[in-house]
Amino acid sequence: MICTCTESSNCSAHKTCAECQLSPECGWLDDGSRTGLGTCIPGSSRGPLEPIKDFHSEQWYFIDCPACQCNGHSMCNETRHTVGGIQEVCGDCQHNTMGRHCEICAPGYFGDPRNGDHCTACQCNGQSDTCDNITGVCHCRTKGVIGANCDRCDQKYYGQPKNGTPCYYELSVDFIFTFKLKNEEKDKHATEIYLFSIPHKNGPSVSVCICRTNDERRVFIFFGEQCLFLKS
């Protein structure tokens, strides 16, 4: 039986052969590089609906997919025999990609590298080395630095994070502050905090004591006094 589908489709929206196979009017045209690259186009069990220059029947996959699926970022260097059939294994992923099929971006990069697309370096203004590998939202490492690109200071923090410098929290003298790193969703990647204090008069120096309990940091500011041993 020959299946031919003539209804309109959006085959080109499918980036992988597996996605392409979900649409009965589409087929996968492999590019022959043995890296998994190809194009999802309208077709039938006989081949593409439109003529393809230099087309070879072994390039056409209408009900299955090529054994090697590395999204153009590697080549298969190993063959395994499994219950489901022959499985080819990708070699080392290139172009800042990772995963079984080199289908995701490596730490420090983001994007959708499937079918030959690229990964872009995280844009975090020097405030983080990593970001969400799909959206590119940065994992700001300093408490008080916020924004998708770590480019703004949170309320009560001061600084210019776009210049690669941290945001600072101003401490009052003769007061006790408690900071909890990773206490909120926006702080879940925070590993550091920057503080500053301006004495309200000349003379005695300002002493700072910091004690720690798990993820909680307590900061004690004394005016004209020395830090004593503090228990948290």
UniProtKB/TrEMBL annotation:
<keyword id="KW-1015">Disulfide bond</keyword>
<keyword id="KW-0880">Kelch repeat</keyword>
<keyword id="KW-0325">Glycoprotein</keyword>
<dbReference type="InterPro" id="IPR056732">
    <property type="entry name" value="GBD_ATRN"/>
</dbReference>
<feature type="disulfide bond">
    <location>
        <begin position="105"/>
        <end position="119"/>
    </location>
</feature>
<dbReference type="Pfam" id="PF00053">
    <property type="entry name" value="EGF_laminin"/>
</dbReference>
<dbReference type="GO" id="GO:0005794">
    <property type="term" value="C:Golgi apparatus"/>
</dbReference>
<keyword id="KW-0732">Signal</keyword>
<protein>
    <submittedName>
        <fullName>LAMA5</fullName>
    </submittedName>
</protein>
<keyword id="KW-0424">Laminin EGF-like domain</keyword>
<dbReference type="InterPro" id="IPR056863">
    <property type="entry name" value="LMN_ATRN_NET-like_EGF"/>
</dbReference>
<dbReference type="InterPro" id="IPR051568">
    <property type="entry name" value="LZTR1/Attractin"/>
</dbReference>
<dbReference type="Pfam" id="PF24973">
    <property type="entry name" value="EGF_LMN_ATRN"/>
</dbReference>
<feature type="disulfide bond">
    <location>
        <begin position="153"/>
        <end position="167"/>
    </location>
</feature>
<dbReference type="InterPro" id="IPR016201">
    <property type="entry name" value="PSI"/>
</dbReference>
<dbReference type="InterPro" id="IPR002049">
    <property type="entry name" value="LE_dom"/>
</dbReference>
<keyword id="KW-0677">Repeat</keyword>
<feature type="domain" description="Laminin EGF-like">
    <location>
        <begin position="68"/>
        <end position="121"/>
    </location>
</feature>
<feature type="disulfide bond">
    <location>
        <begin position="93"/>
        <end position="102"/>
    </location>
</feature>
<dbReference type="Pfam" id="PF24972">
    <property type="entry name" value="GBD_ATRN"/>
</dbReference>
<feature type="domain" description="Laminin EGF-like">
    <location>
        <begin position="122"/>
        <end position="169"/>
    </location>
</feature>
